[in-house]
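One-letter codes give the sequence; the fold follows as tokens. Both lines appear below.
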Amino acid sequence: MKSLTDQMRKKEHKPTNALKQDDKGKRPIVTDEVSKPKPDRVSFMSFRSSGATEYTGQSDPVLAMQWVQNTEKVFRTIRVSDEDKMRYASAMLTDLSISLVG
């Protein structure tokens, strides 16, 4: 899972102008610079129902790693966008796990 700073550094891809003038400026030509449309966003309910589990703050590092791996697997399986991953994962932390980290 990417770190929060990696997520914040990533810039959103902005579409470019698909029509450009040819060398003589007479007619527009189409280029391949059109950005791909964003796929439909995966809802948090879909994320949860696809096998994502809550992390309750167990101190066992093996259990913590298993939770991370399971969460990443769900992200890949249902294709959660990078911009939603941090939000969805942090929503799966229980109050106890948040107080242990903080």
Observations:
- The longest helix spans residues 61-78.
